[in-house]
Amino acid sequence: MTTVEECEIKSPEELAGQCQAGCRDAFELLVRQYADRIFHFILRWSGNHADAQDLTQETFLKAYRSIHRFDTTCSFTAWIFTIARNTAINHCQRTPRFDPLPEDHRSSAPDPAEQLEVSDAQSSLWTVARRLKKKQYEALWLRYGEDLDLTEIARVMRTNTLHVRVLLHRARRELARHLTHRH
Amino acid sequence: MLNCWLHRRNARRALDLGLNPPLKLQRHLAQCPACRSFYQTELRVIHHLRQSAAADRASAPPFLETRILSALSRSESIREPAPVGLRPLAFTATGLACVLLAVLLFLSQQPGSHPPAITRSGSPDPHNPIQALEQHWTVVNRELWLSVNAQWENPLASELQLVVSDVKTAVNALADNFLPASIRQNRDLFPPNP
Question: What is the pTM of this model?
Answer without folding.
Answer: 0.60
